[in-house]
Amino acid sequence: MEFSDVVASEWRPFIHLELDSIDVTEMVAWETRSLRYQPVSAMSAGEHELRLMYYGDDGSIEELGYWTFEVRQTDTFKTITLDGNSEVTVNQRLAEHNLSGPPDYSADGYSQWFTELQSDRVRIEGTGELAYANRPEQSITGRRLDMPQFSLLAETERTRVTAGDQRMGQQSLVMDGYQQRGLQGELALDTFDTTFQLFGMSGNRELGIDDGLGLSDPDNRIIGTRWQSQWQPGDTNELQLSATYLTGGISEPDAGSWSSTPTTRVHDGHAWNAVLDGFFLERRLRMRGEHATSRYDFDGRDFGFDAVADSAWSTLVLLDPDPTDWETPLDWQIGAEAQRVGPFYRSLAHSNLPSDLYMRRIFASANRDKWYWDASLALEEDNLDDFAAYATTETRRWNLQLGYDEYEPPEPGSLFALLGQPSYSLSLDRVDREDKRTPPGYLPNDTRVEGIWASAAFRQDDWYWSVDLGAERFSDHTGWQPDSDTYSLGWQLGLELSEHYRINLGWQGNQTRYRDGGERIDQQIFSLGGNGQFVPDRLAGSLNLSLNQNNAEDDPFFPQRDESLHVSGQLDWRIRKPERNRAGLDLSLSYSGTTLRDRLYGQGTLNRDQVWLELRTTLPTAYPGGMQ
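Now predict its structure.
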């Protein structure tokens, strides 16, 4: 780095060199008309920035120079990254009493890998997970060694291809937006900012490398396409239009068969949707509408009934204005949504969407300084086709939440300086369920559940405590369920005794009263826990106790009176800390025990406990662009 004029030595203390916002002046060598900086270690691949700054003793700041540069891994690739983290755990049960659990010895391993290669035009990214268990029945896939998840991505400026486990499409009435196993291709065009997607995915979410891309089984395969375009009619408006179509099948055993080899049913179907999403008034107003249609074979292919077609729709209006120009601004939003899903609507890629439901909801929220509010009111109806064999039920829900968070330290000498930095919350809710029509031979629904909950928490530098209380009132206006009131009260205390030692105390009490007969059910839970580092970063331990007491002698349905004591503790010894490309080693000794006492029927005391020894090794791996 050269200067046009020689910098006098008396001015050099005011000149600083900053690399990626880090002052490296102490490592700069001054020469006659230049200065030279040699990094102490290899710089990570990617974009970097360099600044030459002047900081005057009068507080003045001036930027003398600014440069950006790129560090490449090789001439061909900008970056080459390989990150991995592997862990192997061995468990041995040393002792047990009155327990018939898993085998005394078990071993499992887990390894996660990420790799990336990036050139000037192409980026390739891959992830993979390996899982090992010495007993296949204890593994997540039923095999000793397997690859539960993997993905491979290749993309250019306009194209993108992804294989393996990934998020398909967008969440909507036809797709749930969850991770799926499959293959997806995407093409982006400048015209109206258009994107085309073509994808295929497994109908069932099964894990394991044997499933491949999830496309080999035609009875468990979903093929689809998605198109999206967006344009801006004006400087502050934006419209997005998209459509999705999918078709395929899902194979599953017949849940109603009692045979040891139940019949497998293949549910064929297809679905499509169209979505219009608009943002107006500098994105302060959003209006979204969606219509979807499905055709689904509920009883399965070749089982007598044809596929059934139905439709669904949803709308959303959300207004999020600019905060007020008051001295303390108020930031608020209000919205309304509606969704109607027909009785026979079902999409292969969104099987968990509730059907036969018509929902309307309005909601609002606001925050001002340290206060916040949330409120919503919803109305739901089912049995939309008025089928005479089913009840038609209307559900009304509303809730309100008010909260306060103090983010500034309390003034010294005040009450809050003693209690701690406070935060409060209060919530109220009510749910009413009432049959508009009940079929003969069925008990009607006409219930109400009302609740109020409040909490207060206080925090100091080395301790915190909180109090929670609530009440819930259940009423059945038909009289076939007993009306009841439930009250709860609890508190927690966390105390940091020193930098390396901490204890926690807690208590929770619940009481339920039947309003007609006066019977009551009491339950309380005491908890005590603590943890500490006896040798920092080397030897640590924890101990936890929990006492549960139940008194329900008056319960007309399930009388009981008992208590249970749970004790667990663990001692951890870090033999060697894991570092880059060097395995770490940890040894743990743990104990867990339970004591059960029946105070009503006098069945005596039951003790159960066990001791485990665990050895774990961890290996973090990186080459050369990872874990910088």
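The chain has one helix and 33 strands.
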